[in-house]
Write a structure and sequence with these properties.
about 160 residues; unfolded protein binding; mainly alpha; transmembrane helix; 2 domains; transmembrane; Molecular chaperone Skp; Protein Binding, DinI Protein, Chain A; membrane; rod-shaped
Length: about 160
């Protein structure tokens, strides 16, 4: 009977040690983490700079269109001048729309390339094996908040971008 109790206690201790080892391994060995792509992209200093540059260029082009529109409303211009201004206005409007599309997509590609580069460095520094990106947690059905490193990565990439 005593042999069974000792054997039982040994088995329980081994199981307990195993469970504790797994608990501490998963608790302190975060090798898989996730980030919120939208929060990371929007909070990145490069994104904000590119957005300001794009808005400046957009406003500059829009002011030219606004001037053309104002000139078109004038009653002192001839029909031929109106026709020429209308062509310029239509062309300018198309160019503005094209600028918006091209600028946004080109800049997004540049920004994501930089984020990916910095994330690779960050992951190596932290010994992360996998960083999962999620758009507002849409593609990740569940993730423990303890493995959300969005703010930590955002701080890291902004410092790297600013040369710190």
């Amino acid at each position: 009977m005593i042999k069974y109790k000792v054997f039982f206690l040994i088995i329980v201790n081994i199981l307990l040690i195993g469970v504790l080892t797994l608990f501490f391994f998963f608790q302190y060995n975060k090798q898989i983490v996730y980030i919120d792509n939208v929060k990371l992209f929007d909070g990145f200093v490069m994104t904000k700079e590119m957005k300001r540059a794009g808005e400046k260029e957009f406003n500059s082009r829009k002011s030219v269109l606004d001037k053309l529109y104002s000139d078109l409303q004038s009653s002192s211009i001839s029909a031929s001048e109106r026709k020429q201004l209308m062509q310029q206005f239509i062309q300018g409007k198309e160019e503005l729309e094209q600028f918006n599309q091209v600028f946004g997509s080109e800049q997004s590609l540049k920004i994501w390339a930089r984020i990916k580069s910095y994330t690779t460095e960050f992951s190596r520094d932290k010994n992360y094996k996998l960083v999962i990106g999620s758009d507002n947690k849409q593609t990740v059905l569940f993730a423990d908040e303890k493995i959300d490193v969005t703010n930590e990565l955002l701080t890291y990439i902004n410092k790297r971008y600013e040369g710190l």
